Amino acid sequence: MNYEQLGVFYLGREVDAATMEEKEQLLLYDSSDMTTHAVIVGMTGSGKTGLGVGLIEEAAIDGIPVLAIDPKGDLGNLALTFPELRGQDFAPWVDPREAEQKGMSTAEYGQQQADLWRKGLADWHQEPSRIQRFRDAAEVAVYTPGSSAGRPISVLRSFAAPPAAVLADSDLFNERLTTTASSLLTLVGADTDPLGREHILLTSILEHAWRESRDVDLVELVQAIQQPPLKKLGVMDIDTVFPAKERLKFAMAINAVMAAPTFAAWTQGDPLDVQQLLYDPNGRARVAVVTLAHLSDSERDFFMSLLLNEVVSWTRSQTGTSSLRAMVYIDELFGFLPPVSEPPTKKPLLTLLKQARAFGVGLTLATQNPVDIDYKALSNAGTWFIGRLQTERDKKRLVDGLTAAAPGSSNVNDLNDIIGRLGKRTFLLHNVHEAHPAVFRTRWVLSYLAGPMSRDQIRLLSQPTGAPPLHTDTASNTNTAALATSESAPAVATAAPFINGDVPQLFVPAQRTGEHVSYFPQVLAAADVHYSNKTHDVNEDLRHLRLAELNEGIVALDWNESDKLHIELDALHRNATPGITFQALPDITLDAKACKQWSTLFQRWLRTDGALIRYRFAPLKLVSQQGESEQAFRLRCTQILREQRDVEKEKIRKKYDSKLQTLERRRLSREQALESRAQKAQSSQMDALVTMGSTILGAFMNKRSPSSSSIGTAVRRGSRVNQSRGDVARAREALAQTNEEIAALERALQAELDQLASQRAHAEELALNEVSIKPTIRDIAIRFVGIAWVPYVQNSKGYWEESF
Predict the structure, then answer these.
(1) 567-606 b/e with 16+ CB inside 10 Å = b?
(2) Does residue 261 share a domain with residue 276?
């Protein structure tokens, strides 16, 4: 059957809508129809993921790059393509629990899956060579933003100035500002309200830089929040709208996120560049699977809004076309395009739905919850794939949205009837470019659908063979040699392999026995070390027990990669526990010479990396004690500082109390003096006024000049008034001086108390120094160097875990 046609997607076979019986007619979909966007709706188990994978495979085969956003972890399966359909290729990816339930080994179950895929492809007229064609057409790369499990993505570029096409479009530019600010606020848990002062400040800072075509990194952004490059927000001073103290808190919140160890993963890896995501360095199309399953809700919204912004910018930078240039697939739309709320992902999605078709970028949006998406926004979608729905409410909401997207194109009753009878992997295709809807059953996919991928599985995808040579356990620091799967590990034996008698052996006690428990050989070294340092008053003895992995090759073992054994040397056994098998020894020489070399290397490690680490707090000249953790030492230092400062505070108060009491007595005395002199001045002023008035009145009544004695009396009393006024002024000055002395003393007291308060130490703020105390060769006494047989148990997933 000729389905390999340029620009045509082979999606499956048509189904009779009346009987739901499959026809021989193939369902071929014109790729250019994807430019008007597509929506896939179906409940869990409807086959929605299979349809999405099939669409992506067809796009890749056609040389169309795909950006696949994977919130659930299913789309990483696109990397599981095995053209030879060998069981050994499938085996590492099958679920061991399913194999166990079927009474099979993983190898047997892998072969069964390979046979199933061979038959499934044949039933749908597909040869295994088509898998190879898919692999040759496009690289499948799995990206894990915020994690190094897959390919990490650096988000720093997302704060760079947008391209000229966005700068020239005021709507796009404002949208870019809004969503970038909202995404960052979402990450720090702040209010994303566009009218909030945090949002306004961020958009103003970004706009100021971007208008000048300057990139903004996160360090500059934190600094700009504290010292904004603008004086006003709107028409008001920035310090009035957003005081400096509050801006500092806001900057510290962003800085706290940046300072977190987990944030480093957001700044490493490939840049968030859509062009690089969609094409490899040679220009070959790429299926870029961006998985978000490991992210929290805030991290997911943060990254998604940045990614969608980049997609908008990249789309607008392309030339117009009516052909499908690239496909953006979102496997689960829930939360990204809700009907009511406005998450930071909604605006760029709306922009893409309205404008991307002109640039040949088609969106395919999948969801299992019809009531949780904005169907008005999806009215731009020209293609709808409708699968089984869970409730009548979902069906009604979907039909309403479908008729809104394409009014008059279908009968509502017919749609209701068909949707109600859809089975698994059966979909109703409603395409506005076709005269009538069609029902079809999806074809068998080329990729092995192993289910949602864990981060460990994604990490293993980077292996060149596509299958893991070793399992690793991220929950502990266990050696990788001891974590090999049963399929990849060397052959096991029921008795310990022969080892030269010059090499001592010990057995770590096992907690379990049985067919899934096995001893792995490792090198164990034990030594008593004396640490001494007079400067820091250290004089103690410690015993070190370390386990190192044995390797074949030039470097047999590396003590820098060793792990601490938390079991006493005396608790180790001389003989093996019955019922536990043995893994084979590596192909290296095991003799007295090897033991001596291990011992020499271990001594060297003890004298360097095995140094004793103590914590020192310089202000108190304190050093942590033996067995005292860093946290305990911090708390001890804090308590001592608190006690010292309480004593110091009491001393300060006592120092100022006597001076304040003296000044208070002086102020009371001067207040009394001022009151007395004010009363005396008032009395003198009245006497002078009365005398002067009497003299003037007598002269007027007697019609003669006042006598010289009368004038003299009036002058003397007037002089006393001036003298009294001077006395009052001097008393007031003296009181003011005393008040100022008291105020200055109170300010000095408060300043000392404030300084003391600012120095109050919190446990997490203490600046501790690490003190490294290294032993000499004479301080080291080797107690054991030899082989230790360490028990591990194999779990249901094939991982080896410690069993001691």
Answers:
(1) eeeeebeeebbeebbbbebbeeebeeebbeebbebbbebb
(2) no
